[in-house]
């Protein structure tokens, strides 16, 4: 195992519970080595998206190798992409299904994949059939 | 000319018009969205008016207002209108007063930013269907030699017509797109709020009503 920092993940959801639950799952897949940080709900604790939560989550997830952002729907997607458009950090938006993408990204990040490869792994999850 | 005072007046009038029409926006959004557009925008523009007091140029007014929208709305309209105002600001010279043509070009850059972020094309039944005709009318009017108040009045009218034209459309972006054909017959709430933004700009620019 190298000591190089791993790519972190930020999970942006309308729902705090959905973001936290998906982060739990992804952390398990990332064998506890990948920083998976939820950014769910609005600042009042309701359903919605908070730019500030996204900012803070990226700060926590980026441990030197950057962070990949995965969002659920609507304003989560737009907020994540707005953040990325202005951020000076190494960040990528993954066009990916929320749960499957988070799991695939955590797996790739745990294996030491770089930022683009982690984002690509999340996107590839669109192709994982269940039948 | 469009100066700092008018830029502040634009944001303040937007806040008032959105608040006054919040119930109608929410009603439109309840029909084809998630029913929070009026409340979200009221909160966002209220936050925006609190952040623009110290701004010295139209550019800094619109940057501060846009950032406040992104941070405080909590729905898709926050990043979208926030990007609209900030991209507009970025295209303006940092002077206390800018020309009508400069403002028109900057607003066009703002609409381009909205398209880029949301990925909406014309006729997708989104705010772009009101914003784009408004900015086109503004540029055309300025190009024809109209002064800013008259040009903005034409822009506001074009926004209204654009929003009305969304009624029969089937949504292809946003939450309404999940409804498919059932989204037809309702005015798009984002287009409706864009009408208010241009009505506010007309008021701030001193357009004849």
What's the number of structural domains of chain B? Answer: 1
How do the SSEs of chain B run, as a string of H and E? EHHHHHEHHHH
Rg of chain A computed from alpha carbons, rounded to a whole number of angstroms? 13 Å
CATH architecture of chain B: Alpha Horseshoe
Assembly of the depicted chains: heterodimer
Helix/strand/pairing category of chain B: mainly alpha
Q: What percentage of amino acids of chain B are in beta strands?
A: under 5%
> From the coordinates shown, what is the CATH architecture of chain A?
3-Layer(aba) Sandwich
| Strand arrangement in the largest pleated sheet of chain B | 1-2
Radius of gyration of chain B: 16 Å
User: Which CATH class of chain A?
Assistant: Alpha Beta
Q: What is the highest CATH level, the class of chain B?
A: Mainly Alpha
Structural class of the secondary structure composition of chain A?
A: alpha/beta
């Amino acid at each position: 195992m190298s000591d190089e920092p791993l790519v972190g993940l930020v999970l942006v959801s309308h729902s705090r519970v959905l973001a936290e639950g998906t982060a739990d799952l992804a952390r398990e897949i990332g064998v506890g080595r990948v920083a998976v940080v939820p950014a769910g709900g609005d600042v009042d604790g309701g359903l919605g998206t908070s730019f500030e939560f996204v900012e803070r989550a990226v700060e926590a997830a980026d441990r030197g190798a950057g962070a990949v952002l995965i969002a659920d729907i609507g304003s989560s997607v737009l907020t994540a992409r707005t953040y990325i458009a202005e951020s000076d950090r190494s960040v990528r938006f993954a066009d990916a299904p929320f749960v499957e993408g988070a799991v695939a990204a955590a797996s790739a990040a745990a294996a030491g994949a770089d930022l683009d490869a982690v984002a690509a792994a999340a996107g590839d999850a669109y192709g994982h059939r269940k039948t | 000319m469009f100066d700092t005072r008018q830029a502040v007046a634009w944001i303040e009038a937007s806040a008032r018009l959105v608040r006054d029409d919040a119930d109608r926006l929410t009603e439109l959004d309840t029909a084809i969205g998630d029913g929070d557009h009026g409340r979200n925008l009221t909160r966002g523009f209220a936050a925006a008016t609190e952040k623009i007091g110290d701004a010295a140029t139209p550019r800094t007014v619109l940057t501060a207002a846009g950032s406040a929208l992104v941070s405080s709305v909590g729905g898709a309209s926050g990043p979208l209108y926030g990007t609209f105002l900030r991209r507009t600001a970025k295209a303006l010279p940092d002077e206390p007063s800018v020309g009508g043509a400069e403002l028109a070009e900057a607003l066009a850059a703002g609409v381009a930013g909205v398209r880029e972020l949301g990925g909406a094309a014309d006729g997708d039944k989104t705010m772009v269907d009101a914003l784009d005709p408004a900015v086109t009318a503004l540029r055309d009017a300025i190009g024809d030699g109209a002064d800013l108040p008259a040009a903005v009045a034409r822009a506001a009218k074009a926004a209204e017509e654009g929003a009305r034209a969304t009624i029969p459309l089937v949504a292809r972006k946003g939450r309404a797109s999940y409804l498919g054909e059932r989204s037809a017959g309702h005015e798009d709430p984002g287009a409706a709020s864009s009408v208010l933004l241009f009505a506010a700009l007309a008021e701030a620019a001193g357009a004849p009503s």
